[in-house]
């Protein structure tokens, strides 16, 4: 049985974005991120995660984000199984109240 995926709320991400040591990975599609991303987020569409592992460091922590939290949960599960430290942002960008960059 897989370990439970750690979660973080959008409010917690907004409060800790510039103080905690993690990278936000936005797994939404290109057309979705054109509507805005969390500042400093790295965009890797969900389907490209398996072939993008060389861009990630197992010594770092990642917070995964999508529109509603479902795709990022799946990406979190996959990355955790590969040995990465991850947290899923609950509710996704639908619940994000902070600033976005374009």
From TrEMBL:
Rhodanese domain span: 18-101
Question: Can you tell which superkingdom this protein's organism belongs to?
Answer: Bacteria
Q: Which Pfam families match?
A: Rhodanese
Q: Which InterPro entries match?
A: GlpE_sulfurtransferase, Rhodanese-like_dom, Rhodanese-like_dom_sf
**Descriptive protein name:** Rhodanese-like domain-containing protein
Q: Which organism is it from?
A: Salinibacillus aidingensis
